[in-house]
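Ligand: zinc ion. Inputs:
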Amino acid sequence: MDVASARAALASLQRQRHAYSHALGMLYLDGVTHAPSAGAEYRGETLGVLSAAEYRLFVCPETQEMLALLRETAGALTQEEIRQTELLTREYENISKIPEAEYVAFQKLINRAESVWHEAKPGSDFAAFAPCLEEIRDTLVRFAGYYKPGAHPYDVWLDQFERGLTMEKLDAFFARLRARLVPLLRRVVAEGAIVNDGFLRDGRFPKARQQALSDRLMEILRLDRSRCAIDETEHPFTIEFNNRDVRITTHYHEDDLRKSMYSVIHEGGHALYELGIADEYMFTCLGGGVSMGIHESQSRLFETQIGQSRAFTDLILPEIKALFPQLSGVSEEAFYRAVNKAEPSLVRTEADELTYCLHIMVRYEIEKMLMEKTVPIRDVPAVWNRLMREYLGVCVPDDRRGALQDSHWSGGSIGYFPSYALGNAYAAQIMRRMKKDVDVDKAVRVGDLSPVVSWLTAHIYRFGSMFDPGELFERCCGEAFDPDCYLDYLTEKYSAIYGLV
Ligand code: ZN
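Predicted complex:
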């Protein structure tokens, strides 16, 4: 093989892999939206066949030879090809260590676990889900041993979701958060009665009108509807196929206006990132967001930093009143305070900015125990409930609102949650940097976020996976990551809302 044919093979391999992930992604999306429920098991068969084909396409002597040659002749490659070679080599070194049968079995396990979890959650039947969780945990520990023998399995998985992340770094990060968040929350709770949000949960928000609100929100975010579609699922998420086809989902709750509204803005932030990736990266491994942490920084930047800012709530309130006339008497001040009400609660996805990271800390502690096998699977709900009491001061009434609430573990992801907390902290620092160049408040007040989207495209989106997350962050912000920026933001915002001095 010469360099020219290796470069051609590199492009061709990535195109083919993209086609598989496109097809697998569509099957997944269909499975959680429109597919009839009885099809899950047979869809699992199809997923198994496609996953096996995808595995064999990638893991073979030809790929190994091609990557080795490209590494040796880096001088003849473009920067993009060098980066592609680097990312594919990293992936190859991991995936090729997993025997094909185990790889395929894991894909099938996840497909089954998702169905089991879906059925177990409404009835809080943790015992029904426990065997799946145990199998997933055991598989992930085994895979971690293949990837990096001798390393702590949780460190191995943290690094998969956010390159360079370790328990040591997270312990320090969370300790910093805890030191400032817990006392702040305690003071806010003491003042809690002064914020009323009952009018946002009064049970009279017809779905059709909430759909109209979703359309308007997507318009404000400058989401191009010819490239981004919206659907409904039990749990909102974003899935991307390329920068011309990104799907977001939401769930309408007729009793609560906030839930879908902020889901749409959150998923919209994820979608903007994927839609903003440069055309020349499409059909390569550079054509997706670089990490979960950076991705979450983009969704939370829109959801909280922008969507829950005074400028945004002032902008959207008149339109909300037009759709839901029962809110006609609500003042701008009351609306702003209501969407920012901070209150310890049970469910992570509904948590306010102030308590959000405490929910993540609960999961972080449990994931450590899971990977170290220091907690029997059946005891996970008890540990969950104890930590929720300790960190948030709430009593968990059932597993539906406790250890069964999230889909991540059933989806085969242990190590994903911490990137949510990191994303929140990244978002605050990215916003602070962006405000040096862009009058964000003004853009929001006039209802045209294009200056914001353009800035983020130039500094983050367009690069796709060209740089590791740490490097991308520092290029964007011009400084190292500093969680105090996030803590300063929260302290200032909530001190003002709750009149703390
Ligand atoms: Zn998200």
